[in-house]
Every structure is written in structure tokens, then in C-alpha cells.
Amino acid sequence: MEVKFTKMQGTGNDFVVVDEWNGEVVPTGEKEGFVRRVCARHFGVGADGLIFVQKSKTADVNFVFYNPDGSRAEMCGNGIRCLAKYVYEHKLIGERHIEAETLAGTKTLDLEVLEDVVVEVRVNMGAPQVKRGEAQVAGDPKGTLIDEKIMIHGFEYNITSVGMGNPHAIIFYGDLEEVDLKTIGPRIRHYGNLFPNGVNVHFVEEQGENEFRIRTYERGVEDETLGCGTGICASAVAAVLNKKADPDKPIRFHARGGDVKVELETNGRDIKEVYLIGPAEEVYTGKIRA
Length: 290
Known about the structure:
Elements: E1 2-10, E2 13-19, H1 31-39, E3 49-54, E4 61-66, H2 77-89, E5 97-102, E6 105-114, E7 117-126, H3 132-135, E8 148-152, E9 155-163, E10 167-172, H4 181-189, E11 200-208, E12 211-218, E13 223-225, H5 229-241, E14 251-255, E15 258-266, E16 271-278, E17 281-289
Parallel strand pairs: 2-3, 4-5, 10-11, 12-14
Antiparallel strand pairs: 1-2, 1-17, 3-4, 5-6, 6-7, 7-16, 8-9, 9-10, 11-12, 12-13, 14-15, 15-16
């Protein structure tokens, strides 16, 4: 059996999109193996994740996202922008305000459209999780992990932990080019004493007022990726928690795959909502054997 797919990318995070709007194309029991084969860089299409587009009983669309290792992911900020572009431009949904079902809850997407082309998507990523219990960090579930010195495999890191439906460890660093992410990333990602479910690892460098560079080692991909939407959102929150950013102004991030911005909604003390704003692109279409 051949499966039609669409290749898409958001900030260099690339995805295979399979349309299951009118019914299941890949049986549920076969999805994990299918995802691993398709996402393999040298033996399949190659991707940072796979999106199944399905109808939802509780929202406008169901965002079914898999990591390339075949595991389900709670949420993907760059991937959900691709979903929004796909369902609108393929005329599955005609509205420019879309609600998407995810494992991290319902997310709202607002589309900027120019001549029937989605040029930008604003995603309400919801409230960040800063308590250890919510952010999937070991220790006092009501406590926080903000700029704490943590010794991992003989090296000390100042780590801030923020959840965005999935766990993130953020480290502010002077020069990102000095970071050996392929070595350091796995050490922190798999540090089970602190992160029992693993963690996405982000090194962030200040560039100016409310402007940052970011590099990411992504859980499930098990490598550096060109961008991570939820990680950028978590890093924006971490920047505010560490008094490195003004929550009342847009926070701009330069990832290796492109630029996005984050806007925060606060009640004067706490961050209530996080918005991720950026483009998505359809690259090509094709068919692959299931």
C-alpha cells in the first residue's frame, strides 16, 4: 500500500504530514513502526516528526503528532503551525481561527492569510508549567527549578525548568558556538535523577533587548534540531523568570532554522498565556510504501 504525504517545515523543523481526515490511512497498531521508517533520514523520507491530520470530536481538528522514534509527543509548536497551514490551504477547514485537539489540551490557532496563502500562524500555547510536579521535574512537586546549579556527569549547569505540555531545561550561555550540544545535550536529556521522563535541552544566548539565539537538543529526535516551538516558548518564560526579558514586549528568537517571536499574557504577576508566532511552509508532496 502506498501512502500519500506532504512534507512541511516550520523554522527548519521538518515534518511528514499524512491526511487521515476522511479515515485512518495507517492502522493505529502500525503507526509506530510506520513513523520510524518514514522519519529515518537515510532510509525514509526523513523528518523531525510525523503529523496525522484527523477529525476531532472536541475541536476543529485533531493534531496527532509522533516523534521520529515512534513515540507520541504531547505537543509541537512548529508542527502545529504546519497543521494549521495544511488544513486551511487544503480546504479541510475554511475558518482563520482554528481549535486543535492535542495531548497537551486544546490549542487555538489564528491564521494570517494573504491571497489564500497562510503566511503566519499565531498559536495560543496555553499556560506554562513552572512547578516541578507539572514540569516533570523530580523533587518537591510544588517547588520550582529556576537558575539552579546542577551537577551532571561532573559538569555544573545553571538550569531553569519550564513545561509547555512537555518538559524543557533551559540554560543561558554566553556563546552558543562554544556549546558541544551533541555531547552535552544527551547528558542532560537523559539525566533521570532530575528529569524522570527525559527533557528537551535548550542553550540560549542573549542578543539584545528581548532578543535571543537558541540551540536545541530534542527529546524523541535524539539530536540537535533547527528549531523547537515549545522550547522557544519555554525559553521565553525562562528569560522572564530570570529577569532577562520584559514580558510586556514581544520576545524574538533566532533558531538555526529561522526566526519566530513569542508574546506573553500576564496578570501582573504570573504568565497566563504564551503565544508562538511564526510561518510554516509546504515543501513537496509524495508517496511512500506503508
